Amino acid sequence: MTGGGVRNQYLWSELSKALEPVGVQLAEVSPELVDGKEALIFAFLGLQTLLGRPNLLNSVTGAQNGAIGGSIHLPGTSAQPYM
User: What is the overall mean pLDDT for the chain?
Assistant: First the structure.
């Protein structure tokens, strides 16, 4: 298990319980991999926002349309977001 979810004890516990009957055990990986993956994913989501591409996909959320989550605020500019 990697990414920020690895720090979610409830998620870890529930997944462990659900996977135990089929003989699967979760294993922690190095903190560098966990933090690196989390940073990479958020950088990718930020890039999608910067490019004006949906990063909340309707195929995942069940919404009618995809949406852009977040906004880009650059230093030294007005309070208006980049988008």
Answer: 84
Domain assignment present for 74: no
pLDDT in the model for residue 79: 59
Say what the pLDDT of residue 19 is. Answer: 93
| Residue range of the domain that includes 31 | 4-61
Structurally, the chain folds into a number of domains equal to 1
- Exposure string of 64-82, with b = 16+ CB inside 10 Å and e = fewer, is eebebeeeeeeeeeeeeee
In a domain, 25, yes or no: yes
What pTM does this model have?
0.57
Radius of gyration of the chain, Cα coordinates, nearest whole angstrom: 17
The three-state secondary structure class of 56 is strand
d(CA 34, CA 39): 9
